[in-house]
Amino acid sequence: MVIKKIKTTAKDLLTDGSVSLIIGYGINGLGDVTPVFIKDPDDVEKLVWNDQCYYNLIRYLSDRDFIEQNNGSIGIIIKGCDQKSLKVLLSESQVNRDKIKVIGVTCKGLMDSDGNVLAKCEACDVVYPDKDFCDVIIGEEVKKKEKEKDFSDIDEIDSMDLPDRKKFWNNYFERCLRCYACRNICPLCYCKECIMDQHNPLWVLPSASVGGNRLFHIVRAYHLTGRCVDCGECERVCPIGMPLRKINRKIIKVVKERFDFESGKDQEQKSPLTRYRENDSEDFII
Amino acid sequence: MSRSHFDSGEKVKKKLKIIGFLCNWCSYAGADLAGTSRLQYPADIRIIRVPCSGRMNPLLVLKCLQEGADGVLVSGCHPGDCHYQEGNYYVRRRMLILKNLLEYFGIDKRRFHMSWVSASEGAKWADVVKKVVKDVRDACEEEVKTAG
């Protein structure tokens, strides 16, 4: 049983001193899955594993203050999608690979509260995390399916007329609260001072106006170019239900088509914006 | 009141505000040559000299559009001729992403342009400005029409 193996692995890592902290999934007072932080080997009973383990726990590794508070190594439980964001963090030298123990778990797909498989899980191609990347792998081995990514919903938006497209997005920009939940949950948004918080110079209007919100989302999407791995957390936490994955996947599509690059595959990859090819596309240049 | 021209229903002004970011070594010199050659081109463009097109940050383009510019033009050296070797290669990638993003969110793609103009291409500069001004004016008029 997967959960039994997770608990014994966690207990072993804590008792033999390999790690001083385990980050995994537990249950909160309301019965929902929540991240748990375990330091005592006996507390591993708190760990759970089910199809509601939504959180991308890598978010805690990109928080430098959190890492500093934990001098010892950290053991972290990851799904395939989380693994991709960890690889991006490693390629950007944000995480010390020697100070973490990666516990990969096979994930057959997450379900929402109505029992439907999440959209991001239907498109998943990393059900089984990489054997040579994780320190421990738990769960049955699943052959990797080379799936062609489905961008039909992006194409649908691209094929709209300009006024319709504007209306489609303005509908969400009018409702965006600028709560920054999407920015705060993203494991790759780790700037100490976010450009949205800068007042001098003021780049993005801080008020929740349509124009300001549009700029916020354009800038955040641009800052994730070649980095976003589509873990889907931003869309999950948005309180107004903005289809944020449609924004990030648009850029993923452009980066794949024009720069032939896919993020999160390899921790040695360099960002496409720090590279160029002499024959890069120029069709938009006069 | 929004200063941004994205959402205004104002009538299209006679004189547009187009901001041009020109690289010091090629495009700015090319524009200067157009001037000394007394070539005629629309005066709607306002030029900002940057050391290299590679200095261009998409945020600068967005800030211009937010603050009321009708259009933005970024112009640099031809690929392979950058004074700093590689700056224009990097900006080519950056602006490709920006162009796609702007268009995706319903901002008329005719508002943002990029061009390669060398120091000897005074005539090309005049043509580039004529094209950009025409495109931006068309975009503004179309937006006013659809805004009703």
Please give a structural write-up.
Chain A has 10 helices and 5 strands, in the order H-E-E-H-E-H-E-H-E-H-H-H-H-H-H. Chain A is of the alpha/beta class and 286 residues long. Chain A folds into 2 domains: 2-138, no CATH class; 152-274, no CATH class. Chain A has a 5-stranded mixed beta sheet. In chain A, strand 4, helix 4 and strand 5 (136-138) form a beta-alpha-beta unit. The model of chain A has no long low-confidence stretch (mean pLDDT 92). Chain B is of the alpha/beta class. Chain B has a single domain, classed as 3-Layer(aba) Sandwich (Rossmann fold). In chain B, helix 1 links the parallel strand 1 and strand 2. In chain B, helix 1 (27-36) packs across helix 4 (122-147). The mean pLDDT of chain B is 91. Chains A and B meet through helix 6, helix 8 and helix 10 of A and helix 2, helix 3, strand 4 and helix 4 of B.
Strand content of chain A: 5-15%
Which consecutive residue ranges of chain A, at least 5 long each, have pLDDT under 50? none
**Number of individual domains of chain B:** 1
Major beta sheet summary of chain A: 5 strands, mixed
| SSE series of chain B | EHEHEHEH
Distance between the termini of chain B: 19 Å
Which chain pair shows the most residues in contact? A-B, 43 and 38 residues
Spatial ordering of strands, largest sheet of chain B: 2-1-3-4
> Assembly type of the shown chains?
heterodimer
Nearest-integer average pLDDT of chain A: 92
| Percentage of residues in helical conformation of chain B | 40-55%
The outline of chain A comes out as globular
> Which class do the helix and strand fractions of chain B yield?
alpha/beta
What's a quick, concise take on this entry?
Chain A is of the alpha/beta class and 286 residues long. In chain A, 33% of the residues lie in helices and 9% in strands.
